[in-house]
Write a structure and sequence with these properties.
It comes from Corynebacterium liangguodongii. By secondary structure, the chain is an alpha/beta fold. The chain contains nine helices and 15 strands. The chain has two domains: 6-166, Nucleoside Triphosphate Pyrophosphohydrolase (Alpha-Beta Complex); 171-325, Rossmann fold, CATH 3.40.50.1240.
Length: 332
């Protein structure tokens, strides 16, 4: 059997784009015996109040003489999010604000399985200059882009993006579990002062390229030192303060769940994009409550690994999307 190439991706390609709840595996690079990871986005511009007029970017790759969506391979030392924004910048020159994780496509390429994760990405700056990888970009309505795109798999991704555009998020919460800290059993002082360990400090640094592409506007943290130090590097990078509120922590959840829920929803009501760094007991319960009271049933177990992130999308006060990224550490 002849080896398949990038241009053959419709031959045996599969899509995993169903549902507004998406999760990235802890080790996506191990999903297949030989996995080639890539990441990209449906680049868009316009006004979500008029979805039919939104324009999306179709790129022309001279190497393949095709029209496709912007994406590229993950480099060593990168997360999927970091790879997506880097590849978009290199290929198109555009800066983007990432939104909803749409899912992934999978297809064989030569002797590997290529797995491509896609987000929505609003263009917020930059300028296209033709290059060796991309020599032309066409901005088209979604209907026109479907006609131009070469591959059915890309059309499926675009169709999924259209569904997300029809229910736009008025707020997103990047809900972070604090990074790994020194073991509780080996810490004799005030538990709120228990610091991050070496891996935890690395996780906190890697959260910067993981979360900055979502363009957070404000950062909140539970009281423990390990929570606000987890998001301190991101705050420094973005020039934002960290607002510490005990109601985002485990102890407050045990004492007064109603108050904790109200604190969370106060942030949702602000709109835009916010970061909340919390703890491992409160987070699954809070997400389950949001699911039960919103428009997004989550039937699977709600995982919250240390340093992991849930990107929670809201329409008004209703949860409408949930994407889990279990680690900001490099996938390769």
């Amino acid at each position: 059997m002849a080896k398949l190439h990038e241009t053959d991706k419709d031959e045996n390609g599969e899509k995993f784009l169903t549902g507004r709840h998406q999760e990235i595996p802890r080790h996506p690079e191990r999903e297949f015996d030989k996995t080639t990871l890539a990441a990209g986005a449906v680049l868009w511009r316009g006004d979500l109040e008029n979805v039919e007029a939104i324009e999306v970017a179709c790129i022309h790759r001279p190497r393949y003489d095709d029209w496709s969506l912007a994406k590229g391979k993950v480099d060593p030392g990168e997360s999927l999010v970091a790879a997506a924004v880097r590849e978009i910048k290199e290929e198109t020159g555009f800066d983007v604000r990432l939104g909803k994780l749409l899912g992934k496509t999978i297809y064989p390429v030569k002797n590997t399985t290529k797995v491509v994760y896609y987000w929505t990405g609003e263009v917020v700056g930059g300028e296209f200059v033709a290059n060796d990888e991309v020599d032309a970009i066409r901005w088209l309505t979604i209907a026109a882009a479907r006609e131009l795109l070469t591959y059915d798999l890309d059309r499926e991704v675009l169709d999924k993006a259209l569904k997300r555009f029809r229910l736009p998020a008025t707020a997103r919460i990047l809900y972070v579990r604090h990074a790994r800290a020194h073991e509780r059993e080996k810490w004799s002082g005030d538990d709120n002062l228990r610091p991050l360990d070496k891996k935890g400090r690395r996780q906190s640094e890697m959260l910067v390229p993981e979360l900055a592409p979502f363009a957070p506007q404000r950062i909140y943290s539970a009281e423990p030192d390990r929570c606000h130090t987890t998001v301190a590097p991101l705050a420094d990078e973005l020039g934002l303060d960290v607002t510490v509120d005990p109601r985002f922590g485990d102890a407050a959840w045990v004492d007064n769940q109603v108050s904790c829920k109200e604190a969370f929803m106060d942030v949702v009501r602000l709109g835009g994009v916010s970061v909340i760094c919390a703890q491992g007991q409160v987070m699954p319960d809070m997400i389950a409550w949001l699911s039960d009271s919103g428009r997004l049933p989550i039937d699977a177990p709600i995982n919250v690994k240390k340093g992991g992130v849930w990107v929670l999308s809201f329409s008004g006060e209703d949860l409408t999307g949930a994407d889990y990224m279990p680690s900001a550490l490099p996938v390769r």
